[in-house]
């Protein structure tokens, strides 16, 4: 039974995570995000290319995947094998983000996992972990106007906040470990952004100015 639960969790979480929300929303709008902007199907590029409404929709959809994968797994496993509910949730967290980053449907070229990781944190971790990550993201974004800097900072905050809460008795090292794995994956996916930041060529997120009246 345990092996069946494990295999089902891995496959189910990966397939859920691999649903390419940004690609699907873009195509519904007549745009292939892989050929526009940064070429990424994540929420940031969707926001730049498609506008606020559709960019926020992509973010919500990607976060929802992470939340459902983790909270859903825990809810399903807990009545069957309570001792394995959180461990299976951790497995679901990792494979859902892997699915988002490397979707089989798009030749394994997906997003960077930030929105999906946010959903994972909301579904599996104490609420303060999510709040801490969100607060760091907002502060860094409004101070620097770099989405990449905000995302990197939030990624580092997640294992840090969960480790602090574990020392206080409100979390556990298993969840800290998966937060660390998600952080490493996020940093790896942001390698081009880090290189551009170091070179001073990373683009800031600027509001679009209205076209001049003629």
UniProtKB/TrEMBL annotation:
Pathway: Lipid metabolism; phospholipid metabolism. It comes from the Bacteria. Its EC number is 2.3.1.275. InterPro entries: G3P_acylTferase_PlsY. It is an enzyme of class 2 (transferase). GO terms for cellular component: plasma membrane. GO terms for molecular function: acyl-phosphate glycerol-3-phosphate acyltransferase activity. It is found in: Cell membrane. The chain crosses the membrane at residues 54-77, 84-106, 118-140, 147-167. GO terms for biological process: phospholipid biosynthetic process. It is a multi-pass membrane protein. Keywords: Acyltransferase, Cell membrane, Lipid biosynthesis, Lipid metabolism, Membrane, Phospholipid biosynthesis, Phospholipid metabolism, Transferase, Transmembrane, Transmembrane helix. It catalyses: an acyl phosphate + sn-glycerol 3-phosphate = a 1-acyl-sn-glycero-3-phosphate + phosphate. Its main location: membrane. Pfam families: G3P_acyltransf. HAMAP family: PlsY. Belongs to the PlsY family. Catalyzes the transfer of an acyl group from acyl-phosphate (acyl-PO(4)) to glycerol-3-phosphate (G3P) to form lysophosphatidic acid (LPA). This enzyme utilizes acyl-phosphate as fatty acyl donor, but not acyl-CoA or acyl-ACP. Probably interacts with PlsX. This is Glycerol-3-phosphate acyltransferase. The gene is plsY.
